[in-house]
Amino acid sequence: MSSVINDPRVSASSARRKKNRTRIAIAAAAVFLVILFAIKPPFVVRPLPVRESPGASSQPVEGKAAQFVDGFWEKVAPLFEEKAQDIAKVLPEIRADPESSGAKYGRREATNPYNYMVKGTGKVIEVNTKSAAGTAEIEIPGLSEKVALQIGPVVRGTALRDATGLVSFNQFSNQLDYADVSKELNSRALKTALAAAPAASLPGKSVTFYGAFTFDPHSKSPVLITPVKIGF
User: Fold this and answer.
1) pLDDT digits (tens, 9 = 90+) for 144-189
2) What pTM value is reported for the model?
3) Are 98 and 86 in contact (CB under 8 A)?
């Protein structure tokens, strides 16, 4: 009896049967899981939701932002003509006391940096078109520092949206729609400004501009202004 039990051939056969039973059990479990997931999948793939804005249904995002801006665009230029501060006067004040000057001349959301509506007249001393975010650098009489007008095609920042007070985050259901309106405003303002004063015609010219900028007290670069109007 003991010789049968200790027979290596019997042990090997028993081990093979055990392995076969294990493989069959694993295969059965796998089949069961496949059937279960087919009946009740553990996750569902859904398309990204389309962002909505007031009064829109199935318009593309760009179209909805344009429609929103259409509702107040005609107020933008008159607002700047009425409210814009002379940059030669206010920028030194802002440099000297950002908080006090911000409360006096600017606007901001919560504790974000202040944004300003400004105007000025000066000579275009340099035009940078090497970068997609092109600029025209201006020297203004009575101002010890130069300022830069954005000439695109890429426009940085949200100064135009945030300086006017015509748009509030409370009008939107999410940050993305709010950002889309800023991009539409920037694009439309730049197109309007450069229609009257094309970038190629700016070097060496004396220009009068209206625009908005966000003040960053830590920046060493010229104040970056998004123009709504440029004239010779």
Assistant:
1) 999 999 999 999 999 999 999 999 999 999 999 999 999 999 999 9
2) 0.74
3) no
Amino acid at 168: S
Using DSSP bridges, classify how beta strands 206-214 and 115-128 pair: parallel, antiparallel or unpaired: antiparallel
How buried is 217 (Cβ within 10 angstroms: 0-12 exposed, 13-18 middle, 19+ buried)? exposed
DSSP, residue by residue, 66-127: HHHHHTTHHHHHHHHHHHPEEHHHHHHHHHH-HHHHHHHH-B-STTSPPEEEEEEEEEEEEE
Distance between CA atoms of 214 and 225, rounded to whole angstroms?
8
Among the CATH numbers 2.40.50.420, 3.50.50.60, 3.10.129.10, 3.40.50.800, which is that of 61-231?
A: 2.40.50.420
**Domain coordinates in residue numbering, the chain:** 2-39, 61-231
Neighbours of 209 (CB within 10 A): 26
